[in-house]
Design brief:
With 417 residues, the chain is α/β, with parallel strands linked by helices. The chain folds into 3 domains: 5-128, 3-Layer(aba) Sandwich (Rossmann fold); 167-281, 2-Layer Sandwich (Beta-Lactamase), CATH 3.30.450; 307-416, no CATH class. Helices cover 56% and strands 17% of the residues. It has a 6-stranded antiparallel sheet with strand order 8-7-6-13-12-9, sandwiched between helices. It has a 5-stranded parallel sheet with strand order 2-1-3-4-5, sandwiched between helices. The radius of gyration is 47 Å and the shape is rod-shaped.
């Protein structure tokens, strides 16, 4: 029994007591009583009971007068009229005024209970329908909000995925996180593969001191917990406390962290916090931020791959440039070397007079410089070779300056001797 409220309006104390204590009360109904028509009308309009048991003959106002007044006030709860033998014509009038049923005095308990149950069935069904309609309206609003969220997330995801510049991408992700959760602050932490620490790569709303160079150890930070267990974290200040201390000089009322995953590997954490707003993040906020984090993780990996590809392309362009320039420099150098050798041969054979060895020394100097330039070009060509080392990956660039100095020293030693 849902403890429906029944108002008994009857000038007989015996009937009121009997119905309240012996019939309705033990069956779970909440019973209210009134001793005459006027007080019964006032109580009906004030208390709004689920059902009224109304006597016909009462002082101050008759049952029909009470019915008329209730009808004028738009009272919709069912009314059962308690009549007496010979008053059927009154019952007919009562039905015209909205009475659902009537019982004749003296009545039996089962007769009253049957009439009450019959009269309340419609009310119960109406209340159940109203409850279901309210739940349906709530569900529809929630569904509409979720559809709106998904549409917003899709648009943001498209905007994020379109950015290949890593720095711009990280900034856009944080701005989107703050917008979606209506947070005061936002930050994106990435895992340093070498040290294992978390470093803040982009922030919105943080103070300058907190944002610059922030690095956190995984083992002793809240954001580190998210990296270790791969699960979102929602925290609010405890009852009686205004803030949570995240680190020195940075206090928040609530925070939300979600992991950035790529192939089950946590590469970072996306977080939002409220410093000013006294608002705790909800499950819906967590859903939005987690969805954004999924977009962001993929976009970050794409941006990193794009940057690596750009480095490879730049290296290939550099190699191609070196090879091309070496070719165009080597050709005139070869011609110059051949010209110097021809002149030296002419001096040696006596076809050209060089009494002070001026030409011979000039030729020798020219040959040395040509060989030096050729050596440098050779080193550059080695650098441009597919077998050479580069800056990419874990391979280090060869020490060009050392190689050049070494080769030049060898050439000069050869000509000095």
């Amino acid at each position: 029994m849902a403890r429906e409220r029944v108002l008994i309006i009857d000038d007989s104390a015996d009937i009121r007591t009997f119905l309240r204590d012996m019939v309705l009360g033990p069956r779970g109904y909440t019973v209210m009583t009134a001793t005459d028509g006027q007080s019964g009308l006032e109580r009906a309009l004030t208390e709004q009971p689920d059902l009224i048991l109304l006597d016909v003959n009462m002082p101050r106002m008759t049952g029909l007068e009470v019915l008329e007044a209730l009808h004028e006030h738009g009272f919709s709860a069912p009314v059962i009229l308690m009549t007496f033998y010979g008053s059927e014509n009154i019952a007919v009038q009562a039905f015209r005024l909205g009475v659902r049923d009537y019982v004749r005095k003296p009545f039996e308990v089962e007769e009253v209970l049957t009439a009450i149950d019959r009269a309340l069935t419609e009310s119960r069904l109406r209340r159940e329908r109203e409850r279901l309609m309210r739940e349906l309206a709530i569900a529809n609003r929630q569904l509409q909000r979720r559809l709106t969220d998904l549409g917003t997330l899709y648009a943001i995801g498209q905007a994020v995925a379109a950015v290949l510049d890593l720095e711009k991408l990280l900034t856009r992700v944080v701005e989107a996180a703050v917008y979606l959760t209506r947070a005061d602050d936002g930050g994106l932490f990435l895992v340093d593969q070498e040290s294992g620490e978390l470093y803040l790569t982009a922030a919105k709303g943080f103070g300058q001191e907190q944002a610059q160079g922030m690095r956190l150890r995984v083992d002793d930070s809240l954001v580190g917990q998210v990296v270790k267990n791969g699960k979102p974290l929602r925290v609010s200040a405890a009852p009686g406390e205004e803030h949570l201390k995240i680190q020195t000089g940075y206090l928040v009322r609530s925070l939300l962290y979600v992991p950035l995953r790529v192939k089950r590997r946590v590469i970072g954490v996306l977080g939002v916090a409220n410093r000013v707003r006294n608002y705790s993040f909800t499950q819906d906020d967590q859903f939005r931020l987690s969805a954004l984090a999924d977009y962001a993780a993929i976009a970050i990996e794409n941006a990193r791959l794009h940057e690596a590809t750009q480095e490879i392309v730049a290296a290939e362009i550099l190699k191609q440039t070196v090879v091309t320039l070496s070719h165009y420099i080597n050709n005139p150098l070869t011609a110059l070397a051949m010209s110097a050798q021809t002149l030296a041969l002419a001096v040696k054979e006596g076809r050209v007079q060089d009494e002070a060895d001026f030409i011979a020394r000039s030729v020798l100097f020219t040959e040395m410089k040509v060989e030096e330039i050729s050596a440098i070009l050779s080193i550059l060509q080695d650098l441009a070779s597919p077998k050479s080392t580069t800056y990419l990956g874990n391979i280090k660039m060869i020490d060009i300056e050392h190689q050049v100095k070494k080769r030049l020293a060898q050439i000069r030693k050869k000509y000095e001797s």
